[in-house]
Write a structure and sequence with these properties.
six-stranded antiparallel β-sheet; 16 helices
């Protein structure tokens, strides 16, 4: 029988001779899930020893991969973007409720988790919430009941819990979208932690089978893929919410990010650098989500406390980004975007090319976008006037400003 015929044969056992002729018959056997079905008389002593050795090597390799996955995506690392602090379950979910309250500026917030087929209060910012609730979402992401909005926590097609927020009046749509993205991130993180707990038990079992380990790896990988998608969606919705809170009439973060990317192209930067600077532009004001809306709406003088909060918002944003694995590389660009080319900026007083190029690009794109956009306290100025101001001011990198001039001329 030819090898070609063997490959096309309808019987898997009819292919056993061909499989064993290869350089690595064990991998072929297990690739076809034949490990439990190959007849004993077909396996020689040498092959049995090889299967046993390979089996141990593969199990060791799978366990190593699983350990690496769970070390990266533990609860603390997936939920800390929501101020998760694993001191105790109740305090953990209360801290998340407090973060949600601050982000979307609602009066109160709470987290309910599904236990024994009902939603049980797990953490809240006050005692106004019932210990048990019965909510029917009908496949909706959120429902309203009087002044309380209930947002579904869904993962793996199941309903895992509820985020509840109380607010007098309407919740802006950008905040609702942010709440849904938080719910998706939160629910997926919780399910992932359950799988990580299961994985730790299996890893402690010396007799764990390859099939079981492969299944766990597949489940963890799928959940991590979902988590990364929800993290990115969370950041995008967070940027939109920042613009809403900052009372920009257009998407300032998006405009800054797009302009920064155009500057990168004009300067001939590579694609990866362009992507990182784009994200930095999108997220450079992320810390403002922690500030109250009245700070942005006022036309008068800020109090000392309000001024300090504005000064510290970059640090708040950087701390948030440090906890989002795939975005950690943009942190230097955001940290130093307030440095000035002439050395008069903060936080380090860096000068010239000692400032990261990404920071210099973001600073120019951000300033131009801000000057050419309407704000509650002033009207936008023309692109020509904004460029004229920037060309005359030594705090911006002249090469980056010249690239901007080529784009908007």
């Amino acid at each position: 029988m030819s090898k070609k015929e063997n490959k096309n044969g309808v019987s898997l056992f009819g292919q056993s001779e061909y499989l064993m002729e290869g350089n690595d018959p064990l991998e072929e056997i297990f690739a076809l899930n034949l490990g439990d079905f190959v007849s004993e008389h077909l396996i020689s002593k040498d092959l049995a020893e090889k299967i046993g050795a390979k089996n141990k090597d593969k199990a060791f390799s799978l366990k190593k991969q699983l350990k690496e996955l769970i070390s990266i995506y533990s609860t603390q690392k997936t939920l800390c973007v929501l101020s998760f602090d694993k001191i105790g379950e109740q305090s953990s979910f209360t801290s998340i409720a407090n973060t949600i309250k601050q982000m979307v500026e609602v009066e109160e917030a709470a987290v309910y988790l599904m236990k024994d087929c009902r939603f049980i209060l797990t953490g809240s910012t006050s005692d106004i919430f019932d210990n048990f609730i019965d909510i029917n979402f009908d496949d909706k992401d959120f429902v309203f009941n009087n002044e309380i909005a209930f947002i579904a926590l869904r993962a793996n097609s199941g309903l895992n819990g509820v985020i509840a927020v109380k607010k007098s009046g309407l919740i802006p749509k950008e905040y609702l979208k942010l709440l849904v993205s938080i719910a998706n991130l939160f629910a997926t993180s919780l399910i992932l932690q359950d799988r990580i707990d299961d994985t730790n038990k299996i890893l402690a079992d010396e007799n764990a089978g390859i099939f079981e380990l492969q299944q766990l790896r597949a489940e963890l990988t799928a959940l991590i893929g979902d988590l990364c998608e929800y993290q990115q969606n969370f950041v995008e919705e967070l940027a939109k919410a920042v613009d809403t809170k900052g009372q920009y009439k257009v998407s300032h973060s998006k405009n800054t990010a797009n302009l920064a990317k155009q500057i990168c192209t004009e300067l001939g930067l590579n694609e990866k650098t362009k992507d990182l600077i784009y994200y930095a532009g999108l997220l450079q004001n992320i810390g403002k989500i922690s500030l109250p809306e009245r700070i942005f709406a006022t036309n008068g003088k800020l109090s000392d406390e309000e001024f300090k909060k504005i000064q510290n918002h970059i640090n708040t944003g950087v701390n948030m980004l440090m906890n989002i694995n795939f975005l950690s590389e943009v942190v230097p660009y955001i940290t130093y975007k307030t440095e000035n080319y002439d050395g008069t900026g903060k936080p380090e007083g860096l000068k010239g090319q000692s400032i990261p190029l990404g920071s210099r690009i973001i600073a120019v794109a951000d300033a131009f976008s801000a000057m050419t956009s309407d704000r509650p306290y002033r009207k936008a100025i023309s692109s020509h006037d904004a460029l004229d101001i920037m060309l005359k001011d030594s705090k911006w990198d002249p090469i980056v400003v010249d690239a901007l001039r080529q784009i908007v001329k």
